[in-house]
Amino acid sequence: MPEHQEKSIVLSIERLSPSVYRLTLHAPLIAGEARPGQFAMVACGSTLDPLLRRPISIHQCSGDGRLQLVVKVVGRGTQLLSEIRAGQTLDLLGPLGRGFRLSPGPVALIGGGIGIAPLLFLAQSLMQTGQADASCRVLLGAQSGEDLAPLAAGFETLGCHVELATDDGSLGRHGLITDLLPAHLPNLGKVYVCGPHPMMAAVAALCASAQVDCEVSLEAHMACGLGACLGCAAPGADGRYKHVCKHGPVFKAEEMAWTTR
Ligand SMILES: Cc1cc2nc3c(=O)[nH]c(=O)nc-3n(C[C@H](O)[C@H](O)[C@H](O)COP(=O)(O)OP(=O)(O)OC[C@H]3O[C@@H](n4cnc5c(N)ncnc54)[C@H](O)[C@@H]3O)c2cc1C
Ligand code: FES
Q1: Which structural domains are found in the chain, ordered by start?
Q2: If both were cysteines, with which of 24, 31, 90, 241 could 67 make a disulfide (CB 3.0 to 4.6 Å apart)?
Q3: What percent of the chain has pLDDT over 90?
Q4: Which pLDDT score is estimated for 120?
Q5: Is any ligand 1 atom within 6 A of the Cβ of residue 38?
């Protein structure tokens, strides 16, 4: 599927928490083709600083050409994105990468922190195509309730069963979201996960021991997003490096070499 370079119009920007923003854009070319788990390379500013585009997951798309991104401010590029205003344009390259492979059956979606952002699009697609039903489990974790609540909104409306956990106990269970997974595993056909690397490594190991299919959405530093620069290489289980931007960002968990880092 070809990618598009599209000058989107910013329709709105909402602050969801002190460091997280949701951008609603009019980007009909990309919104019309994006699949859950794909991302866009976003030109964050109008100057040469930062020089490189930043990869941001597609959060939601609608048939009228609207596309949403959820951005957590961690540095210069994401800070500039948080300062954009309605009416301005935002240059996107996308949709990029291989997204989640949707399969019918009982599934769980597991998200940590800003890794929750691409999972709402996935849940929508699974529910709307009838590949998941009310047995769909959504397990979401973050550092605090302030971080988690805005990212977790929307899943219950779709009819999913949602469970939450926070590091500080301010929302949901006090502890790691991965602690909630073993109880569900015997009833699951597939798990989709996006979040911090140690969380995905733990989920991959639990799924492997229970022989449940698992797909992971990896993060990597990206310069081009197109498979041209080798900037995003991640070690595969076969000893060969994969380009996260082109072969992923979504991989079968068993394709990757898992390390604790
Ligand atoms: C496929 C993909 C999808 C992503 N989706 C989202 C999303 O939906 N929302 C969102 O807020 N962020 C997402 N990210 C992460 C986002 O790309 C980075 O946070 C962003 O590039 C940081 O740019 P910056 O200029 O603000 O920070 P920089 O100044 O470049 O870096 C600030 C800090 O963040 C770290 N960092 C930068 N980029 C990455 C990265 N790719 N992975 C891990 N650590 C990084 C740096 O090491 C540094 O410590 C995604 C990344 C990938 C690869
Ligand atoms: S970011 Fe350039 S090859 Fe992946």
Answers
A1: 4-96 (2.40.30.10), 107-216 (3.40.50.80)
A2: 31
A3: 88
A4: 97
A5: no
